[in-house]
Amino acid sequence: TYYHSPIVISKEYSVEIPGIGHHRVGISETFVITDTNKVIMSNPAYSRQRNRVYSATVDKNGDKTLVPETAAENNAIRTFEKMNLAAKGSIPGLIIALKDSEDYVRWYAAGALAKLGPKAVPPLIEALKDPARRVREPAARVLGEIGKGNKKAVSGLIEVLKDPDKYVRQSAVRSLGKMGRSAKDAVPAVAAALKDPENNVRLFAAEALGKIGPEAKAAVPVLVTALKDADSIVRWYAVGALGEIGPAAKAAIPALTVELKDPKKYVRRDAVTALEKTGPAAVPAFIAALKDPAS
To answer: Residue 112: CB partners within 8 Å, gap ≥ 6?
Structure first.
């Protein structure tokens, strides 16, 4: 067998890391031990590990110990240990893993915390204050899955809507949307996010207001302004949000009528649906649209 240079394989070993989050089957890493007791990861799940070399010892029971030949390789071994820690569901350990420099370790930790449910909410709220963006972002994301109905979680997410990092703000506003009506206290902050410089934050802010529903009626004027957004996807989400707010959004009927002429078909289509959801007050708008040859 050849890698970068000829070697002779004496034995193969695999390490199975249990699946967490979206990875149901887990990850398998194969270590090839050569006749000189060197170890090479021949077919790693992550390409950065390929052909890294370790010293190997195997005891009489067949158990293996991998000793990295350099300090840099030692990080690979620690990564597997952290992922195994995530699999065991230790909250303190998972919070530590959220700070890891490796993206996939943080992702695994976030998935494991989501599986632990409400008991993981308090440490995640604290994690929102972490100086590292790579900790705040997954914490904000996971709170949307397990923090519904928790007022402290809502308050924490409101605070990070002002985060300097766009990905943290995006995860925070999406999570507030996932909480639905239980996030009604966040309406002013989410409405303010409709003016965020990042398109994705604006569109998810509109989506969140729609998921909060009629309780978000105070945001109708800002959503009407969002109907003029240069990004058609933001306009689309704003139209949908006004429809979800329903009759309480009847003040938006004139603006929604204008959207019947939007250059994007999907915006026009959903403007019709939104007008329907505002109730009988939209009937005159429909009559006028039917008479307008440009509609």
So the answer is: 20, 21, 86, 87, 89, 94
220: left (phi over 0), alpha (psi -120 to 50) or beta: alpha
What's the N-to-C CA distance of the chain in angstroms? Answer: 69
pTM of the predicted protein model: 0.68
C-alpha span between 131 and 166 (Å, rounded): 15
Q: Yes or no: say if 238 and 223 are a contact pair by the CB < 8 Å rule.
A: yes
- Tell me the per-residue pLDDT of 153-201, one tens digit each, with 9 for 90 and over: 999 999 999 999 999 999 999 999 999 999 999 999 999 999 999 999 9
Name the CA radius of gyration of the chain, rounded: 26
Q: Give the CA-trace dihedral at 266, 267, 269, 274, to 10 degrees.
A: 140
Average pLDDT over residues 3-29: 36
Residue 231: closest CA among 252, 192, 205: 205
pLDDT digits (tens, 9 = 90+) for 66-84: 444 444 334 443 444 454 5
| Rounded Cα gap, residues 261 and 258, in angstroms | 6
Number of H helices, E strands in the chain: 14, 5
Contact between 19 and 28 (Cβ < 8 Å)? no
CA distances 79 to 66, 104, 221, Å, are: 13, 9, 49
